[in-house]
Design a protein that fits this description.
Number of domains: 2
Oligomer: single chain
Number of strands: 10
Strand order of the largest sheet: 6-2-1-7-8-10-9
Number of helices: 11
Shape: globular
CATH architecture of the largest domain: 3-Layer(aba) Sandwich
């Protein structure tokens, strides 16, 4: 791969997915795109770049999907789900008692382990029995959404983070695979969504999981995400970030949730942000995990 080819790919990936590759990630691009080039009958990266420059949209989408990382597993990092069960759901059960409904958004949901982990937490929380709980799982990649909708996982996948009692209770074995029961799958709605585009049509949420996504973006893009996510949350809603992510030092759209690391609430006391209403939508991807 020539330096010019790499710079072109870096530019197109940032524009289309928000992925901000450093100058030393050429090896990563080669390892993921050379197999793609060969699969579509091209000789290598150079020919792939020529095709992209010619404006081949389906191929561009394939390149973006090949470069997004979809690493995930059930109850990943455990602590956010402990927070959900111990603090977030009890508080919301009390605050939403009159309407008996909750909306939860799992951005960058990948192959489904995170939104289904949330669904199992909700299912196990007795105080929410009979409530209408809507969980929206969104991702840029159509391929991972197809797998998520099916809710079928390998033995290796269900062994990563999933307690055995939940496997027995909420899955059935299908040959050598495991499928989530229909009641859990039915709690999750899937949306193909690129945060490069307007997502305000999703409405507001009580909880947003946006974990292990922002680490791939530059600071301006992170700030753009936080500003827009803050407008998607109810005033007493909760944002859950990944262990290596924080709003601290970036913007004042959120404030830390007391004694629960990784959780944040909209900052109602912040000063109005100049020009916020007219701020253009930033290029941000939902799929990079």
């Amino acid at each position: 791969m020539t330096p010019l080819d790499y710079e072109f790919l870096r530019k197109i990936l940032k524009e289309r997915s928000g992925l901000d590759l450093s100058a030393d990630k050429q090896y990563l691009v080669e390892s993921r795109l050379i197999p793609l080039a060969r699969r579509v009958g091209l000789s290598g990266i150079g020919e792939l770049v020529l095709k992209l420059k010619a404006g081949t949209e389906p191929l561009t989408s394939e390149v973006v999907e090949a470069m997004t990382t979809n690493e995930t597993f059930f109850f990943r990092d455990k602590i956010p789900f402990d927070h959900l069960k111990e603090a977030v759901l009890p508080a919301l059960a009390q605050a939403r008692a009159s309407r008996r409904a909750l909306r939860i958004w799992c951005a960058a949901s990948s192959t489904g382990q995170e939104p289904y982990s949330i669904a199992m937490c909700v299912k196990e929380f007795a105080a929410l029995a009979g409530w209408r709980v809507e969980i929206v799982a969104s991702d840029l990649s159509q391929d991972v959404l197809v797998k998520s909708k099916a809710g079928i996982y390998s033995q290796f996948e269900v062994q990563r983070g999933l307690p055995i009692q939940l496997l027995v209770k909420h899955f059935k074995q299908v040959g050598e695979m495991w499928q989530l029961n229909a009641d859990i799958r039915g709690m999750v709605q899937h949306r193909q969504l690129n945060l490069l585009q307007d997502f305000s049509h999703l409405g507001t949420f009580d909880v947003i999981f946006c974990r292990n996504v922002l680490i791939y973006f530059d600071q301006d893009t992170k700030v753009g995400i936080f500003e827009r996510l803050s407008r998607m949350l109810e005033p007493d809603g909760v944002l859950a970030l990944g262990a290596a992510e924080s709003v601290v030092g970036l913007c004042d759209a959120f404030k830390p949730y007391p004694d629960r690391r990784g959780l944040y609430r909209p900052n109602a006391t912040r000063a109005p942000r100049a020009g916020a209403a007219a701020m253009p939508l930033r290029a941000v991807a939902a799929a990079t995990r």
